[in-house]
Amino acid sequence: MDNVWKIAIYLRLSKEDGDKDESDSISSQRLLTSEYIQRNIKDGEVVGEFVDDGYTGTNFKRPKFQEMIRLIDKGAINCVIVKDLSRFGRDYIGVGEYLEKYFPINDIRFIAINDGYDTASATYNDDFIMPIKNIFNAQYSKDISKKVKSSFRSLQKEGKFVGAFASYGYIKDPKDRHRLLIDEPAAQIVREIFSLYNSGMGKVSIARELNGRNIPCPSEYKKLNGMNYTNGQKLELTKYWSYSTIHNILKNEMYIGNMIQNKSIRKTVRGKARKNDKDSWIAIDGTHEPIIPKEQWDITQELLTRNTRQIDFDQNVGLFAGYIFCGNCGRAMSKITNKYKTKTVTTYICGTYKRYGEKTCKRNSVKIDLLEKLVLVKLNEQIQKAGDIIYDNSSENIKNRDFDLKKFEISLEKYRKIKKSLYEDYKEGILTKKEYLQYKSDYEEEESLILGQINAIKEETNEKNEEMNKWIKTLIKHKRIEKLDRETIAEVLDKIVVTEIDEEINIDIAFKFSLS
User: Fold this and answer.
1) Where are the beta strands (DSSP E) in 22-92?
2) What is the residue-wise DSSP string for 392-407?
3) For the residues 431-457, what does the mean pLDDT come to?
4) Residue 108: helix, strand or coil by DSSP?
5) Could you tell me whether strands 504-511 and 44-53 are parallel, antiparallel, or unpaired per DSSP bridges?
6) Buried/exposed 24-48: b ≥16 CB within 10 Å, e otherwise
7) What is the CA radius of gyration of the chain?
8) Where are the beta strands (DSSP E) in 191-272?
9) Contact 108, 80 (CB under 8 A)
10) What is the pLDDT of residue 268?
11) For a Cys-Cys bond, which of 204, 350, 380, 441 suits 326, CB 3.0-4.6 Å?
12) Domain 170-306 has CATH 3.90.1750.20
């Protein structure tokens, strides 16, 4: 049996390496190697065919290649045949290690058919030329990589998707792989995640909720839909929703229709991908249909900013977390819960006092139920004022303002015509220069007064700036609020400051915009 060649046929294909010709296809490689064995190796048997389809030759982390090496280590293979050296690999250092060290040490015969190389009959010249071919293969891969990257950057700047897998909630359009379409089953989960978070549920609690309902996490969902997906950032056994998965979804602008790409970069062909600086990201707005409305997205980002400090990831976020501060030291207030025989009382106290005691700051406590009532009263007052402003701008008032405006505009036009006739009278000698200048000055003064009236009416109509108009729209949609929730807090509240002055607690509630 020592004279029998136990043959491994190794086939590899990767578009990343520029393998586009039909001659490089797996079927073509299979036909070539099989015919070669029939013609040239009479005393051999094929132990197995090892195919890595879609794996780059710039490294050796290929499943079937590694399986072949394990069988070589066991002595089950003593001959490896490939179409050419580039099919074996394009990393000249790694290829050199196998050809010059590993294979000779393990008495492995290596054949690269199209290169005319066979270690069983290799000459000095063959051994000299092979490393040079190896270097050329590696350089070719680098050149292809640069061209591919350049092409990808151009497409990214046009707002076209170039990733291998779309973000969870989207799929690539079968008719145009650079265009994203909503994947409704996954999109529904994305909407639920945003809704749960905005209502006050913590990220870990959301993950537990989804895991409890046996909803596949994004990586598992891709696999269930037939995608050859692996997550390099996860342990292989991590097949569940996690804090980081929820966090990444909540921060992903893809869900509001913006294409965000070039977030990671690979310095070399063989190197690991690393995160790119945010300034280097390629962001194009409005490239695909959004899953999350912009208004909901803005609230989520506001809450994410406010919730950066969370004592316990397992807890749901407190109603006022990130919005309530001590007026004496400026530190965020902490929530404490005291249980009595008949009831449970939740109170906010100064975070500094809670940690370091009364020598550092005052307690500044306020019960959460009292705070909710105060905020509700203040907020409903703002809603009432917003309604009054809308009433003031009712159709009757607008009609009266338009009438006044038209009246003044007619007067203004009349004085301008008089001014013009004055000049004509002066030119014809009816008026002296002194008389002309005096009349002109008088009418210009009248004109200025009328312009002032017109501007006053316009300012009264439009005096509410864009921020106020947005604020009014936000308030009006609520009509009246009976109970506060986390989403409403994020939409309207700026901050709450609790200050102890002369042993009395003062609570200052500030909204994002206030109607005085």
Assistant:
1) 44-53, 79-82
2) HTSHHHHHHHHHHHHH
3) 82
4) coil
5) unpaired
6) beeeebeebbeebbeeebeebebbb
7) 37
8) 259-261, 264-266
9) yes
10) 46
11) 350
12) yes
Residue 265, strand partner residues: 274
- Tokens coding 16: 């990343």
Q: pLDDT, tens digit, for every residue of 263-319?
A: 765 544 444 556 767 776 778 888 899 999 999 999 899 888 875 444 344 445 678
For residue 158, what are its two tokens?
Answer: 């046009």
Question: What is d(CA 119, CA 100) in angstroms, rounded to the nearest whole number?
Answer: 10
Residue 237: partners with Cβ closer than 8 Å, 6 or more residues away: none
Domain ranges of the chain: 5-143, 170-306, 318-516
E strand segments, 212-297: 259-261, 264-266, 273-275, 282-284
Structure token pair of residue 396: 């009757």
Confidence class of residue 111 from pLDDT cuts 50, 70 and 90?
Answer: very high
Q: Please report, for residues 413, 445, 454, 456, 469, the alpha-carbon distance to residue 459 in angstroms, rounded to integers and kept in the order given.
A: 20, 21, 9, 5, 14
What are the CA-CA distances from residue 201 to residues 6, 218, 277 (Å)?
61, 20, 31
Q: What is the DSSP letter of 280?
A: G
> Is the separation of the CB atoms in 306 and 256 below 8 Å?
no
Kindly compute the dihedral angle of the four CA atoms of residues 325, 331, 335, 340, in this order, to the nearest 10 degrees: -100
Interacting residues of 487 by C-beta distance below 8 A, sequence separation 6+: 198, 199, 200, 299
Q: Which pair of tokens denotes residue 66?
A: 């590694």
**Do residues 245 and 219 make contact, with C-beta atoms less than 8 angstroms apart?**
no
Sign of CA dihedral 26, 32, 35, 40: negative
The encoded tokens of residue 138 equal 């590696």
Q: Which two tokens stand for residue 367?
A: 């019960």
What's this model's pTM, rounded to 2 decimal places?
0.46
Amino acid residing at 401? R
Comparing C-alpha atoms, which of 367, 361, 380 is closest to residue 319? Answer: 367
**Residue 427: pLDDT band with limits 50, 70, 90:** confident
Q: Could you tell me how far CA 201 lies from the centroid of its own chain?
A: 21
Taking the C-alpha atoms of 219, 225, 227 and 231 in order, what is their torsion angle to the nearest 10 degrees?
0
Q: Look up residue 363 and give its amino acid.
A: R
| 5-13 vs 79-82, strand pairing mode | parallel
Q: What is the pLDDT of residues 47-88, one digit of tens each?
A: 999 999 988 888 889 999 999 999 999 999 999 999 988 889
Question: 500 - beta bridge partners?
Answer: 505
5-143 belongs to which CATH class?
A: alpha beta
b/e per residue 64-103 (b: at least 16 CB within 10 A) = bbeebbeebeeeebbbbbbbbbbbbbbbbebbbebbeebb
